[in-house]
Write a structure and sequence with these properties.
Length: 250
């Protein structure tokens, strides 16, 4: 497997999860029958697939994370913590800050994981796919995503021609997990000169594509769930979580 460092985005205030995140860091909300922190599933998944060097990019209520996971030895991994730089905003800014603080360098292969995503994705296979294609960036994608709202079709006068409740999208969607070559550093610096806030998916990936760099999608049928809103959290089935993620606790 391609050797990689994991960068886990754990700094956001979790506004879509309020009022829960007035009390919890969003990656620390309890899930499953045993009410383990969401982030524990992430860390155990990465360790299961051979990634043991993890950098948690933290900010809001980081103490909850650090008090629970400490240096990672309890989970047989190495965990370090990097505080977001207030001058570098957005998810892209958090990654760029990791370069500035020398936590990662342009020679590294990075696995970036959004901390509010629950999945059983085989990240080893994804990293091998990334390496085989000599990609600058590889985005984990899922098909069959169901939109949580109804979709309307209107004519020119605003009359409804059709309506589908919670349709399934035909095109793949991002799972919130990426493999990146450290060589993206220069592109991120260029973006930082143009924008105050850099979004990894909204700015960095389109910028790489626009510069004709090798950006690939890794299409997976793995289970994944975005726990990033109160509605999504309330609908997450604890029994299902326990069954699908049991392999991480054997």
């Amino acid at each position: 497997m391609a050797k990689a460092k994991a960068l886990i985005l754990c700094g956001g205030p979790g506004k879509r999860l309020r009022p829960i995140t007035y009390y919890f860091q969003k990656t620390m909300i309890p899930v499953g029958l045993r009410q383990r922190p969401l982030l524990e599933y992430v860390i155990r998944l990465l360790r299961y697939y051979g990634i043991k060097d993890m950098i948690l990019l933290v900010n809001y209520k980081y103490e909850q994370i650090q008090n629970y996971f400490d240096d990672g030895s309890r989970f047989n991994v190495k965990i370090s913590y990097l505080h977001d730089d207030p001058k570098l905003k957005g998810t892209g800014g958090s990654i760029l800050n990791a370069f500035h603080k020398k936590a990662v360098n342009p020679k590294d292969t990075l696995l970036v994981y959004y901390g509010d995503i629950l999945t059983n994705l085989n990240v080893r296979e994804m990293l091998n796919y990334h390496k085989k294609r000599k990609a600058l960036a590889t985005v984990a994608l899922a098909s069959g995503f169901s939109v949580r709202v109804g979709l309307a079709e209107l004519d020119d006068e605003g009359r409804m021609k059709g309506f589908v409740e919670k349709p399934v999208l035909e095109k793949p969607v991002s799972m919130g997990i990426l493999a990146l070559s450290g060589k993206i550093y220069n592109y991120m610096e260029e973006l930082a000169e143009k924008k105050r806030e850099i979004d990894l998916m909204g700015d960095v990936i389109p910028y790489l594509i626009g510069n004709n760099e090798p950006v690939y999608g890794y299409l997976s049928k793995a289970f994944w769930y975005d726990v990033g809103s109160t509605e999504a959290y309330e609908k997450l089935n604890p029994k299902m979580v326990e069954e699908l993620m049991a392999f991480l606790f054997k």
